[in-house]
Prior knowledge:
Chain A has helices at about 1-15, 30-50, 55-75, 90-100, 105-120, 135-145, 145-150, 155-160, 170-175, 185-200, 205-220, 230-235, 240-250, 260-280, 285-305. By secondary structure, chain A is mostly helical. Chain B has four domains: about 25-95, CATH 2.40.50.100; about 105-260, 3-Layer(aba) Sandwich (Rossmann fold); about 270-340, Ubiquitin-like (UB roll), CATH 3.10.20.600; about 355-450, no CATH class. In chain B, the strands form four sheets. In chain B, strands 1-14-13-17-15-16 form a six-stranded mixed sheet, sandwiched between helices. In chain B, strands 2-8-7-4 form a four-stranded antiparallel sheet, with no helix packed on it. In chain B, strands 11-10-9-12 form a four-stranded parallel sheet, with helices on both faces. Chain B is globular and about 65 Å long.
Amino acid sequence: MTVTKNMTASGAALSAARKFPPYIKQRDTVRSMMADVLIALVPAAVWGVYKFGLRALLIIAVSTAAAAASEALFDLAVKRPLSVGDLSAVVTGVLLAFCLPSTVPLYVPAVGAVFAVVVVKCFFGGIGCNILNPALSGAVFVRLCFPEATAVTGDPLSVLKSGGMPEASYYDVIVGNIPGNIGEVSALLLIAGGVYLIIRGVIDWRAPVFMIGSVVLVCFLIPDNVSSFNFVMYEVFSGSLIMTALFMATDPVTSPATASGRAAFGVLAGVLTMLLRICGTQPEGVAYAVLTANLLSGVIDRITAPKPARRESAAAAAPENGGDAE
Amino acid sequence: MSYVFRGGVYFKGVTSPKGVMTAARAHELCLYADAGASPCVSVGERVLMGQPAAVSTDGAPVLHFPASGRVTDIESDGSAARIIISCDAEDTVSPKVRKTEKKLSDCSPDEIIEKIRSAGIAEPDGASAADKLARAVGRAGVCVINCAECEPYVVSDGEAALASIGKVINGLKIFLRALGVRKGVFAVSEGSAELFKKLSAAVNKSLLFTVAKVSAKYPGGDERRVVYALTGREVPSDGGTVELGYVVFNVQTCIAVYDAFVSGMPQISRVVTVAGDGVKEPVNVSVPIGTRFSDLAEYAGGTVAEPALILEGGPLRGTVTAMDGAVGKTTRAVLFFRENEVEAAEPVCIRCGRCVSACPEKLMPNRIYNAIMNGDRKTAYALGADLCSGCGICSYVCPGKAPVAELIRSMRGDEEAGVGADETDDRNAADVSVAAVEKDDAGETKDGEAEI
């Protein structure tokens, strides 16, 4: 009831506001931002398909179709205007597929995408209202539901976890010549996409840079049987860190809105990642780290909120010139 | 060296007209007397250039006839009034308009202020320049003449200054004399290199003046941003620049003050930018107050097509107007656009934070927007909705096309008009006011202290 009432009230407020300036708006839209994200994901997707075969493409397609269709069906079911056009569900679908190995049965990306879009996003009010990153939550959900089907073996992080020494060269790790999930292996192409988004102003550099930076720092702080530099290379460039840091930790909806908040968010996610990787039972911990940071981003926003300059005392409070005129 | 304020936006790719053209003689002028001013002439009366047209409640003239002619119509709708005169070709000047006999150094501050008051000179926000000056006496140590403007298209102030450098410099001398201070600053936008060069050359030998550059970023021409550029100190969002010892006057005010002091002529004209894709040849034109917007369009070569949107002022702060409107003392620009940008059907906030990093008042517009959309005005004010200067950047940069600035203005307009909040939410006491919120905050602090 309250929701319907508030919708009407906000509708009235919106129409009352229409008579005020500004009368120009920047060209960017949510749709154009999401389209840019998709463009940035293309190189890594191409590499995934090259490396893992056409089945990788099929998984991306199933995941994307399931995500878009479930958002459309949800909107139809609750009689809301269709929001698929903003492409955010498509991005969710592609990112979810990127988190899965190419060997998963096709129902896995479908289940994950429906969960991501319907439960994590639509149930919370659709775009802008979700608390957790949908793609990441979907990936975690299917990993919990289908642990065997989604498991990756032989990737450098798993080898490290089992106490072994990975054989992949630096070159292989950075280019993506290693076992892993479809979209996560090619660190190089993911970074290229991330740089594109930063240049286009779609994402902020702080969260990924601080996240990866704090992973590196924590790596150097932890004594390990692997010599430090090798250890850092594997921790940073294999696994999901690069993709998650560039494409999930930068999700506008679930990360803080302030600049310093994004830095703090990155540090938090990076440190949690290493704690989970080192102390946890699983080789990978990036997803849980970012989801935990997602939960805290509202708090981080409040703590890091910029302080507007208010008068210090009411003594000077006599209304002088308005100060608004140019 | 100037300090660059936080936030703001550079507008690129908007070309603005250069130079100032003088308008041809208008046949008819339409003067708007604001609420609180009443016409002091009657229909059919012959009026002279510089003669008072309307007086405020305390008898001070606030509006003068920019030309000689005959009053053809006076319309009044209770508060505001409209006086229409048909101009003759004589431009007979009222005998009351007299040159100042005294030298500036012989005038007392009060005499100068009185002179400015009787000339009815207004700042771009509509405030009386005389009142502003009178309040600054003894409090401001520096007088700033603001030639920096920053809204796209609008260049009337800078071009007006460029066209009358001498008047600007002597106008500032008048301000300094009235204030009894010896430090004057011209604030020029980084974008206007020519004005900076000319002013610098003109003040070269004077110890009284400096010329300072301010950021070309919007809203770098705001008084508060100008003072920040000069001092690196933030002017409180709920306070004025005078609190930091700076008083800022618009450059067109400065020119009007010079004219009023030297020739005795009240504020009867101003430079207006006429631009937008709806006119053929955008111009800056010096026109008498009361010039109709349709005449302005003619000065700019006529309209390309029936304009879908006519704005008085810039695109970020202006107001929608129509062809039959007329230039007032606060009209910086009139913009004609072929298309009216359509609002997104479904505005959305994706919390991207662009508004947060762009807000020059250091607010979090996204949170204020969400509070207003939830009908929670109290939270909106607690988040600083009262500090919003209405620059409109938050709405401009929003990829979700959320009307953030519009909602804040709409809400504050409601408060001022005493309109209640929507009744759907119990949290909305209809009369939540800034004062009430501040009181609440104070109360909380006190409680906290008591517990300690």
